[in-house]
Amino acid sequence: MKVVLGVGGGIAAYKAALLLRLFTEAGHEVVPVPTAAALRFVGAPTWEALSGVPVSTDVFDRVDEVNHVHQGQTADLVVVAPATADLLARAAHGHADDLLTTTLLATRAPVLFAPAMHTEMWLNPAVQANVAALRAHGHTVLEPAVGRLTGPDSGPGRLPEPEVIHDAALRLAARAGGGEGPLAGLRVLVSAGGTREPLDPVRFLGNRSSGRQGVAVAAAARDAGAEVVLAAAHLEVAPPAGVELVHAGSAEQLRRACVRAAARADVVVMAAAVADYRPARVAETKMKKTEDGSAPVLELVRNPDILRELVDLRNTARRRQLVVGFAAETGEAGTTPVEFGRQKLARKGCDLLAVNQVGEDLVFGQDTTALTVLSARGGDEQVLEGTKDEVARGLVDRIARELAAVPAG
């Protein structure tokens, strides 16, 4: 997808550089089109280095390519961030006095504006009228975030975080494309994060899962056109926009949430790190240290096997549903994580199993990962490596292929 990234002349322009990187890391071609004022905040070398394309602001640059029309005609998506009060006004009234405004007039691609300005400016009736006009023209204008602004000021007017803009832009592009994608028309349940099993009102038994991989899978399924339900245990990352979020703290809460959501799902991806055991008893008050220095003895009981239960429910109902499990393995002497994964695939009865080797400095909380995907139908195992977003997209592609390979009925 070709993304034209318009950058207005505000202090929040530095965040647009981070937004550019999100698009390029997701595999999209990005053409930055800053205004002349934006270049006073972030210079052309930064935009060129991050995008790999030359930066232009003037309609008289590259006249032989008719650049002021070409960029708009060839764009699949136009994102303007930050959209200043001045830029919103010029766009709303059809001005064509620089490369960005001419691009906005020439494009038929979906356009998203992410405003950023001081609160008084954002609430000014003239700015609100311009926003209303842009929306009436069919453009998307995000609401600004509320928070710290330039200097000591705080309030509505802050540029939304790059991840929020990125997610909103991808949703807009998917809608404009009719939602077509390898999972278009399907409902996908994804679980993510680590469960927390309470010991008392203060303490819990947990694990090192950050939820990054499950969140990335949910976002990739959304971008592939699916309607996504994210059953979220403890997350250390923000859930993606555009998905239905269901919170679940403990394994039992997650089980109930997944059983409900799976009843309507075409695909189930169990990426959450579910505790195998929980305390047999939960103290009603905070557990105190004993006077004699003795340590408490904790009795644990087994948690429900959510993945196996979902497979059994699918089989009993004879639903055409693809179930994907995750196996976080450390391996042991003489047995590799993948060998443990093959055993788990047979034991759980799921269709695909994504196996990764974990440890204190492996996978949990990291930006990169490696998964080995095993299929109950047999065949060669597939290795996915890269950032967790890249691996998630690879897994979604594999899910789409697996669905196509299984005949209906």
Automatic annotation (TrEMBL):
Residues 1-187 are annotated as: Phosphopantothenoylcysteine decarboxylase. It catalyses: N-[(R)-4-phosphopantothenoyl]-L-cysteine + H(+) = (R)-4'-phosphopantetheine + CO2; (R)-4'-phosphopantothenate + L-cysteine + CTP = N-[(R)-4-phosphopantothenoyl]-L-cysteine + CMP + diphosphate + H(+). Residues 1-165 form the Flavoprotein domain. Residues 188-409 are annotated as: Phosphopantothenate--cysteine ligase. Its cofactor is Mg(2+); FMN. Its EC number is 4.1.1.36, 6.3.2.5. It comes from the Bacteria. Binds 1 FMN per subunit. One of its GO terms (biological process) is coenzyme A biosynthetic process. The keyword Ligase applies. GO terms for cellular component: phosphopantothenoylcysteine decarboxylase complex. CTP binds at residues 276, 286, 304-307, 326, 344, 348. GO terms for molecular function: FMN binding; metal ion binding; phosphopantothenate--cysteine ligase activity; phosphopantothenoylcysteine decarboxylase activity. Residues 183-401 form the DNA/pantothenate metabolism flavoprotein C-terminal domain. Pathway: Cofactor biosynthesis; coenzyme A biosynthesis; CoA from (R)-pantothenate: step 3/5; Cofactor biosynthesis; coenzyme A biosynthesis; CoA from (R)-pantothenate: step 2/5. NCBIfam families: coaBC_dfp. Catalyzes two steps in the biosynthesis of coenzyme A. In the first step cysteine is conjugated to 4'-phosphopantothenate to form 4-phosphopantothenoylcysteine, in the latter compound is decarboxylated to form 4'-phosphopantotheine. PANTHER family: HOMO-OLIGOMERIC FLAVIN CONTAINING CYS DECARBOXYLASE FAMILY, PHOSPHOPANTOTHENOYLCYSTEINE DECARBOXYLASE. In the N-terminal section; belongs to the HFCD (homo-oligomeric flavin containing Cys decarboxylase) superfamily. In the C-terminal section; belongs to the PPC synthetase family. This is Coenzyme A biosynthesis bifunctional protein CoaBC. It comes from Kocuria flava.
